[in-house]
Design brief:
The structure holds two protein chains of two kinds. By secondary structure, chain A is mainly alpha-helical. Chain A has four helices and no strands. Chain A starts with a helix and ends in a 10-residue tail after the last helix. Chain B has a single domain, classed as Rossmann fold, CATH 3.40.50. Chain B has a five-stranded parallel β-sheet with strand order 2-1-3-4-5, with helices on both faces. The chains are: A mainly alpha, B alpha/beta.
């Protein structure tokens, strides 16, 4: 690893620790949005909050070495962009994607996690 | 003299990682701003060689910030690269049609961001 790569990797590891609470908070917004939309699939406010959280996660997770997290978050953002009430199929996909995203983020701190990788 | 790049993004993490990347990998001087209005002020004051501009920001979004930069004589000629997490084809076309120098996407690789910017702007010294 070059000096630049090592320096960036070390700083990313520090940044992950400081960013983690915000990332988990955004994950929580998605979890609550998914549950809430199951009760009211037409709730535009909840869709908007979820879309914003997904957008932010999609932009940052890959930078921290979680490209799969960025891809899943982008898929969630796309579902929540719908101007219409979510369909039963949308809701099922949303729930699955939120669960998958949660697992990806948890894997970063779980056994075998070895710090940031290249995006 | 090193290149000077202004990063305008409301996300502190993105600003920090992008700045780290451009400073460490390319040795460029980096300025940062957390909003469109703060970015315009910094651009007027510092005249950077390029601006990396986030699309989705609260308040003044990226496209609005871009139009204001273009309307000011002292910033009109600074190349602007839009940075967005949106990857849908329709958005790419809409952003390209604004007249920006390039559209780049998050997540970016901190090790190659500087090279991508240099290539997009035709900088051969990076």
């Amino acid at each position: 690893m070059s000096d630049a790569a090592a320096k960036i990797a070390a700083r990313l590891a520090e940044l992950w620790q400081t960013s983690r609470p915000t990332i988990l908070e955004r994950m929580d917004v998605l979890r609550r949005a998914s549950a809430s939309l199951n009760l009211n699939p037409a709730d535009a406010e909840v869709r908007g909050a979820g879309r914003e959280a997904a957008h932010k996660l999609s932009g940052i997770l890959g930078v921290f070495g979680l490209p799969e997290g960025s891809t899943i978050a982008a898929a969630i953002e796309e579902i929540l962009q719908s101007p219409d009430a979510l369909t039963a199929a949308d809701l099922e996909t949303l729930q699955k994607q939120v669960t998958a995203l949660e697992a990806v983020i948890a894997s970063k701190d779980g056994p075998g996690a070895d710090g940031p990788e290249r995006a | 003299m090193p290149r000077r790049v202004l990063i305008i993004d409301d996300e502190e993490d993105i600003r920090e990682v992008a700045a780290l990347s451009l400073e460490t990998v390319a040795g460029w001087e980096v300025l940062v701003a957390g909003s469109g209005s703060a970015g315009i002020a910094k651009a007027r004051e510092n005249r950077p060689d390029a601006i990396l501009l986030d699309v989705m920001m609260p308040g003044m979004d990226g496209p609005t910030t871009y139009h204001q930069l273009r309307a000011l004589p002292e910033t009109a000629g600074i190349p602007v690269i839009l940075l967005t997490a949106k990857v849908q084809a329709a958005d790419q076309k809409r952003f390209s049609d604004l007249g920006v120098a390039a559209v780049m996407f998050k997540p970016f690789d901190p090790l190659t961001l500087a090279q991508e910017i240099a290539e997009a702007l035709g900088w051969r010294d990076a």
